[in-house]
Amino acid sequence: MKVPHILVGVNGSTASARALEWAVVRAVAGHTRLHVVHALGSSNWMDPYGLSLCWPMTWCPAAYWGAEPGDAAEQLLHDAAQWAREYEPTLQISTRLRKMEPAAALLEEGLGAELIVVGRGHNRAWTLWPGADVASQVALRAPGRVIVVSADDEVRV
């Protein structure tokens, strides 16, 4: 059985920094530990403004394939944990880098979590297919409480 904890996903975005801040405050207030997760999943996305010339001489959206290097991912986790320790030196913090898609990683790591905290950017309107937003996937599929944090607010789902 896993010890209850607050789980927060980080990815280097402003929304995930706000989620980390929210999770740290909640972990301190609840006298529980914090578990910080980053998923090193590759992402396939479309840029609606990035057009490229397709065959036969027509314009089509540019597709990109990207994956973060492991060193940058480890540094991201280190920086998140360091920030949390500076905020509250007595807070118990664990980190984990997962090599899988972000929503799946958060759902798996969140088993037994008291609360899962995720960030959502303001670019939700640009989602080109249902369920592409990690925060939405986690909120819909998590068995427990999920807090979705943006730069301005947070919503319990």
Mean pLDDT: 79
Morphology: globular
Strand content: 25-35%
Q: State the helical fraction.
A: 25-40%
Provide the CATH architecture: 3-Layer(aba) Sandwich
What are the segments in which pLDDT stays under 50 over at least 5 consecutive residues?
A: 43-49, 51-68, 125-129
Q: How widely separated are the two ends?
A: 24 Å
Task: Let me know the CATH homologous superfamily.
Answer: HUPs
Return the CATH topology.
Rossmann fold
Tally of individual helices: 4
CATH class: Alpha Beta
Which value, in Å, is the CA radius of gyration?
17 Å
Would you kindly provide a written description of the structure presented here, covering whatever features stand out?
By secondary structure, this protein is an alpha/beta fold. It has a single domain (5-156), classed as Rossmann fold, CATH 3.40.50. It is 32% helix and 32% strand. It has four helices and eight strands, in the order βαβββαβαβαββ. It has helices at 14-30, 70-87, 102-109, 134-141, and strands spanning 5-9, 33-39, 43-54, 58-66, 93-98, 115-119, 146-149, 154-156. The protein has a six-stranded mixed sheet with strand order 5-2-1-6-7-8, with helices on both faces. A two-stranded antiparallel sheet has the order 3-4. A hairpin with a 3-residue loop joins strand 3 and strand 4 (58-66). The two termini are 24 Å apart. The model is unreliable at 43-49, 51-68 and 125-129 (pLDDT under 50).
